[in-house]
Design goal:
By secondary structure, the protein is mostly beta strands. The chain has no helices and 11 strands. The strands form 2 sheets. Strands 2, 4, 5, 6, 9, 10 and 11 form a 7-stranded mixed sheet that branches.
Length: 119
């Protein structure tokens, strides 16, 4: 099972980026998928997640600016990030609670994608 994350980059303050995360491999479906981030010198923190039933959670720091949604492609989620601030700069990691081929629920992490907000 792999979680493939992409979409990071360099953007000016106030700009937008969209991250995507796709789960692939011997999986049945996901239970919850979401994003965490880690800024230099700080601990990894929760950003947002979405369950397979559409329940969504956001960190207070991103509410009203970020939107998480499931994609049309199976086991894919997107994170639309608007009104980006320099403090959003971090490596963003995709995280997923996935039901693998034997019905077991397992947690996986994707590789990080760098988001830099700077003028």
């Amino acid at each position: 099972v792999q979680l493939q994350a992409c979409g990071g980059g360099l953007v000016q303050p106030g700009g937008s980026l969209r991250l995507s995360c796709a789960a692939s491999g011997s999986i049945l479906t996901y239970n919850v998928m979401g994003w965490y981030r880690q800024a230099p010198g700080k601990q990894r923190e929760f950003v947002a997640d979405i369950t397979s039933r559409g329940v969504i959670n956001y960190a207070d720091s991103v509410k009203g600016r970020f939107t998480i949604a499931s994609g049309n492609a199976k086991n894919t989620v997107y994170l639309q990030m608007n009104s980006l601030k320099p403090e959003d700069t971090a490596v963003y990691y995709c995280n997923g609670g996935v039901y693998i081929y034997d019905g077991t629920l397992r947690t996986f992490w994707g590789q990080g994608t760098q988001v830099t907000v700077s003028s």
